[in-house]
Q: What sequence folds into this?
């Protein structure tokens, strides 16, 4: 009997959380005029500057082969 009550409580909690989340999402719709990606900083032409791009670069660093900590 106790396990059945626990299962019922977990089910009610899950369903109520799902319902509350769905209500929150529908109340806070995306702004269609918002940009899809933020602007990326770029260096100005003719001057030395920093160019930031969304890319992954390879390095010469040795990979971590162990995560052991004492």
A:
């Amino acid at each position: 009997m106790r396990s059945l009550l626990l299962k019922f409580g977990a089910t009610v909690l899950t369903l109520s959380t799902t319902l509350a989340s769905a209500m929150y999402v529908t109340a806070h719709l995306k702004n269609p005029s918002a940009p899809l990606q933020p602007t990326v900083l770029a260096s100005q032409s003719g001057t030395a500057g920093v160019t930031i791009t969304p890319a992954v670069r390879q390095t010469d660093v040795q990979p971590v082969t162990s995560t052991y900590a004492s």
